[in-house]
Inverse folding.
């Protein structure tokens, strides 16, 4: 199939591109490189340096390439940024996505795989781990844009017959993750520990161990994107592990794994504590029963195993 991956130079998107290419698909990447990197772009993929808000240029790409599938990873992903600048967040995540939808209909794309956020969409859910049937209660502009986009997909299916699958990610980590924002906590810890800098565990005052999150390895996420090419029609599906881990627990796993490297073990520091940030959730964990049933998918990497793989990539020869 001929597949477009928006945001395909980013952390998750580039791993998905690699997975699609390994399956023999023809892949085109669109990315404005605002957070993606040149070195992440697979040389076997066709690349367009482009902002999805640039409708005219985007249309020329759709007209020329005639995609079968659009995999939409491009987004503004920072929750604190969305709180600070909700208009910019909506401009990228809603207006930009509407350009993708309009052109997908016009140029007869068969299906859209839309990347949503199970980690943010459900808010402080009373059902825990949280299933897809739980009514979204977004507590940040970022989460709101994801929910709005899912509703646009429903409309475009009913109005135009556009097929889709929504993948609601938990907290994804792994090779190529950038050390910025709350989503990149694994990379932040690894980078700061390697450099001998302090790490901060943000926490609510009554839960000093930090927020609880569902951490899923990027290689497992990429496999879900492969399965979604032919499964999960008109469904929203959680992609996580169903296991909640506190920030302190996560830090300890990263710390212990890095301490095996004799070159940097002496630089490692214990963490400091900090207060919760705007938009932070106390806990988030996804029920993945639907992914197993509909996609035939389940994560293959435990958090410890995934962190070991990530550290090996991160340190390279130093590990």
């Amino acid at each position: 199939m001929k597949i477009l991956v928006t945001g395909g130079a980013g952390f998750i998107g580039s791993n998905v591109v690699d997975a699609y290419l390994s399956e023999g698909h023809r892949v085109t990447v669109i990315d404005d490189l605002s957070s993606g990197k040149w070195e992440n772009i697979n040389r076997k993929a066709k690349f367009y340096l482009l902002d999805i808000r640039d409708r005219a240029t985007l249309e020329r790409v759709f007209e020329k390439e005639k995609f079968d599938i659009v995999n939409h990873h491009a987004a503004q992903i920072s929750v604190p940024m969305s709180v600070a600048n909700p208009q910019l967040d909506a401009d990228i995540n809603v207006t930009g996505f509407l350009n993708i939808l309009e052109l997908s209909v016009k140029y007869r794309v068969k299906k859209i795989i839309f990347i949503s956020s199970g980690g943010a969409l459900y808010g402080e859910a009373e059902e825990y781990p949280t299933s897809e049937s739980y009514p979204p209660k977004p507590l940040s502009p970022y989460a709101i844009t994801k929910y709005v986009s899912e509703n646009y997909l429903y409309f475009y299916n009913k109005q135009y017959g556009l097929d889709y699958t929504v993948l609601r990610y938990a907290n994804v980590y792994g090779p190529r993750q950038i050390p910025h924002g709350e989503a990149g906590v694994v990379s932040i810890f690894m980078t700061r520990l390697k450099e001998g800098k302090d790490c901060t565990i943000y926490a609510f005052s009554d839960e000093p161990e930090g927020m609880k999150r569902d951490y899923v390895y990027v290689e497992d996420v990429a496999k879900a994107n492969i399965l979604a090419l032919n499964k999960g029609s008109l469904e929203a599906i959680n992609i996580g592990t169903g296991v909640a881990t506190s920030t302190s627990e996560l830090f300890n796993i990263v710390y212990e794994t890095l301490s095996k490297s004799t070159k940097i073990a002496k630089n490692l520091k214990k963490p400091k504590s900090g207060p919760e940030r705007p938009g932070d959730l106390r806990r988030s964990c996804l029920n993945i029963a639907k992914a197993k049933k509909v996609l035939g998918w389940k994560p293959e990497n435990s958090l410890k195993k995934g962190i070991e793989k990530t550290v090996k990539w991160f340190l390279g020869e130093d590990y």
Remarks:
- The chain has two domains: 2-172+215-239, 173-213+244-284+301-318.
